[in-house]
Amino acid sequence: MTGTAELVADEIADALNAKGKNTEILLMDDLAADVFEAGAAYVICTSTYGQGDVPDNGQAFMDDLESAEMDLGNIKYGVFALGDITYDQTFCNAGVLFDETLGKFGAKRIGDIMKHDASSGELPEDQAGEWAEEWLEKLHSM
């Protein structure tokens, strides 16, 4: 909703492209559950809004994922979640919701969820490239 997750996605894509990986950034606005291709790897970049909600532009995507009940056993993914620790109960909750939903349908998360704290003083886009390189190493070691 503010564009920060898109900035993070750009940095992640740049880091992965620099390692020879072909990447594509897909905004959540028009995504459906059938976006996932067997054998592919994905990174979900999302902020959290309201009471721990998925951003408005990702809500229809999340609803479709939850209702599709599809087999995602051949999908690997990572999550870079944006939030503010001052909202302790809902900190990075949108990332957690995507993680739970993908996991429920058999997708395999690579590494831990990256939870960026907006109140930390560090910009998430400054951390995204290093995180992406570490995530890629974990993906290749699977």
TrEMBL record:
Pfam families: Flavodoxin_1. The keyword Flavoprotein applies. Residues 1-136 form the Flavodoxin-like domain. InterPro entries: Flavdoxin-like (IPR001094), Flavodoxin/NO_synth (IPR008254), Flavoprotein-like_sf (IPR029039). Keywords: Electron transport, Flavoprotein, FMN, Transport. The keyword Transcription regulation does not apply. This is Flavodoxin domain-containing protein. It comes from Sneathiella marina.
